């Protein structure tokens, strides 16, 4: 099997997602692949903040509501990726929900690997309702690496 050419990793600004960025960067570095760091965001409206907090948790929601926080999230992720060895890094900030956004970024960049953290897989809500990593893996048209980032 040939090495990966383009690796997409999603981040929401949480420490868990940054650990997935670190792993994706290492894979990209080993394969001399392009690393595309993606962050989905929701336009900031006060009435939507409660919904986003319910979906993402209050510890993360503030980081991905509105365009500027998402830009900061991918900038931080890019710095981490560079430290982890990735050299060809692109960042993408997209208005939308995480799973459709990741699918679009994978398609648009002709990626052959999607990397996500396992945050949400071990929660009751994640088991009942599905989680971003589980849904991304089910719907992906390319290989998916789910990085063990939480206990």
UniProtKB/TrEMBL annotation:
Family matches, as Pfam families: Usp (PF00582)
Gene3D superfamilies on file: HUPs
Top-level taxon in the UniProt lineage: Bacteria
Span of domain UspA: 4-148
Coiled coil feature spans: none
Family note: Belongs to the universal stress protein A family.
Record-linked PANTHER family: STRESS RESPONSE PROTEIN NHAX (PTHR46268), UNIVERSAL STRESS PROTEIN UP12 (PTHR46268:SF6)
Protein name as annotated: Universal stress protein UspA
